[in-house]
Amino acid sequence: MPEYDVNIRNVTKRFGSMTAVDAISLDVPRGHFVTFLGPSGCGKTTTLRMIGGFEYPDSGEISIGGEVMGNRPPHQRDTSMVFQNYALFPHMSVAGNIGFGLRERKVPKQQIRERVAEMLNLVELPTHGDRKPRQLSGGQQQRVALARSLIVEPTVLLLDEPLGALDLKLRKQMQIELKHIQQRVGITFIYVTHDQEEALTMSDTIVVMNDGRVEQEGSAEEIFERPRTRFVAGFMGAENILDARVVERDSASTRLKIGPGEITVDGPAPTGADDIAVVIRPEKVRLDVADGWTATVRDRVYKGSVMSYMLTLADNTQLIAEVTHDNPAHRHERGDTVSVGFRPDDLVIIADQKKGA
Amino acid sequence: MATVPAESATSGTGTRWRFPIAPALSLGLPILVLIVFFVLPIVLIGVYSFYSLNPDTGLMQQDFTWANYERALTSSIYRNIFLRTLKIAGLSTAIALCLAYPIGYYIGAVANPKRQGMLLLAVLIPFWTSYIIRTYAWIGILQSNGFLDSALGWVPGLPTDLLYSRTALIIGFVHVFLPIMILPIYASARNLDKRYVEAAYDLGATPFRAFIRVILPLTMPGIIAGIVLFFIPTFGSFVTPQFLGGTSDVMMGNIIDNQFGEAFNWPFGAALSIVMTLVVIVAVTLFFRYADVEEIYGS
């Protein structure tokens, strides 16, 4: 049985008439890198701030390390936050910033000095202790913010889009570095981002949020390969989300009507409504198959390693296909009629009861 | 050069130079105002301070003497008055800061932003009334059988006959100049990024510790500006001590006023004025350097 560092039970938070977080329940296992992923306004930052004690739930409860937090203020919680834009104290040196938490805990000066030096090494800024935050680059400030939060050895480290202000290249580098640091210190990280790629790169668990609710929770692979809702599929970058209808169901297989045709997939259909959706990755859509469905090439885009075709099926369903190793002889022009097909195994079925997004 | 086309060769002289009226006005007018109302009087005072009085007529005569400065700097009477002025102005500033900081911080950082304008207006409204009238009002409040006396005179041990005392003087200063101290503190509190405070709490600081280590240093520029803006007019004031202060609370402003008025010794009054001005300039410069505002926000 895994131990949990954070348990969220049925937590709701409203701001005026707007419900920011709507009855969320969630358990964060000890030592995991968990990412709250979602568009702005989905409630991910509010949830993070409630864990940190900067907001209090209207109802429900949050426990950290098994203790119910209630309305306990941030300085009495065993959490630490890396803020968006870092919030480094401008009037203190880098060392002063990093040592802040230990000073508040009345740690002897000599010990603070040693620990600060250790942290500076951990974030690879060993000689920057005497500088002021404004003399550092964005990436360096980011590391200082991380060191300042890690030095107090929190049960949970909260990170609120900490890489948002960095350029793409630095961001990629910091993603890997953050993951390494997390593995080294073994502290539970809760990370908030709207960048799905960032979430995939770093997380043990991704919690996709939308409209104040949890849409899906799972490993990066589960979220990406087997999205459970239309919203998750769309947010993770699925390009082909097709309406489907269960026309026949039994325990071993399901017959679906998709666009102009029907297809039989293995396994039982999701219980509930017959109106569902399927996702097919563009690279899994196959062209020029025998007895496929007819489609018209609406447009095509050369993407270097692949050629991307925008297709329209007979019933006007739009479909994107990506073809690699494009033999020039097999190229299709705009307006061509092609035959498309896909293997039933490549379809991801989404129980689309909510019909959201 | 011989191949340069005719048009371009003449284009330099083609447009005639015109007097730049708009820049000259927008730059020249303020400079003129500054010279006439600021530089000229100070220069004049500086010149007067080296003049002497004609021993026969008692009138000011052109001269170059250090005698006025010698008297201003060596006489123990003026040194004592100077120290007293420093003490009264310093004490008033300290008391005003204790009031202005909570008010300015509340309006800038705590109050609902929608109500900030209204609260600020409430702070500024007293400015619409003349300084003299506001000071006069305190006479009515503080004199024996005045408002304070009739309202609270029955409380045993409570001093109610405050007029012409140092307490009355300090009350007058704090009341009159408080708004100009609140304004810069309000501004720095409004600019304080709340995330710094949250970060301090998050790292284990209690609200009190967060105030000492983060809020206070980050609003220091406002505090310093407020202190300077309050101290300078208090230090040079002569109206408030004349109206509210006792005979033992004569300040430098009164002495200077007296030299230009009843004593009719302009050169000595001018010398005292120059000394006061220099003291303020040196003090403010040192104060800014010590407080090191640059350190906090960078350049």
What descriptors fit this protein?
heterodimer, A: 357 residues, alpha+beta, Rossmann fold, OB fold (Dihydrolipoamide Acetyltransferase, E2P), six-stranded mixed sheet, five-stranded antiparallel sheet, 8 helices, B: 299 residues, mainly alpha, MetI-like fold, two-stranded antiparallel sheet, 2 strands, 74% helix
How would you explain this protein's 3D organization?
- The complex is a heterodimer of chains A (357) and B (299).
- Chain A has 357 residues and is an alpha+beta fold.
- Chain A folds into 3 domains: 4-228, 3-Layer(aba) Sandwich (Rossmann fold), CATH 3.40.50; 229-279 and 345-357, no CATH class; 281-341, Beta Barrel (OB fold (Dihydrolipoamide Acetyltransferase, E2P)), CATH 2.40.50.
- In chain A, 24% of the residues lie in helices and 35% in strands.
- Chain A is built from 8 helices and 20 strands.
- Chain A has a 6-stranded mixed beta sheet with strand order 6-7-8-3-9-10, with helices on both faces. A 5-stranded antiparallel beta sheet of chain A has the order 13-12-11-14-20. A 5-stranded antiparallel beta sheet of chain A has the order 15-19-16-17-18, with no helix packed on it.
- Chain A starts with a strand and ends in a 7-residue tail after the last strand.
- The relative contact order of chain A is 0.12.
- The mean pLDDT of chain A is 90.
- Chain B is mainly α and 299 residues long.
- Chain B has one domain (78-297): MetI-like fold (Orthogonal Bundle), CATH 1.10.3720.10.
- Chain B contains 15 helices and 2 strands.
- Chain B has helices at residues 6-14, 21-48, 67-74, 76-110, 113-124, 131-142, 147-152, 166-191, 194-202, 207-218, 220-236, 239-244, 252-260, 266-291, 293-297; strands at residues 52-53, 60-61.
- A two-stranded antiparallel ribbon of chain B has the order 1-2.
- In chain B, α8 packs antiparallel against α11, α9 (194-202) packs antiparallel against α10 (207-218) and α13 runs antiparallel to α14.
- Chain B is globular.
- In chain B, 29% of the residues are buried.
- The A-B interface holds A 52-54, 73-75, 79-81, 83, 85, 87, 89-91, 100-101, 104-105, 132, 134, 148-149, 152 and B 193, 195-196, 198-206, 209-210, 213-214, 217-218, 295-298.
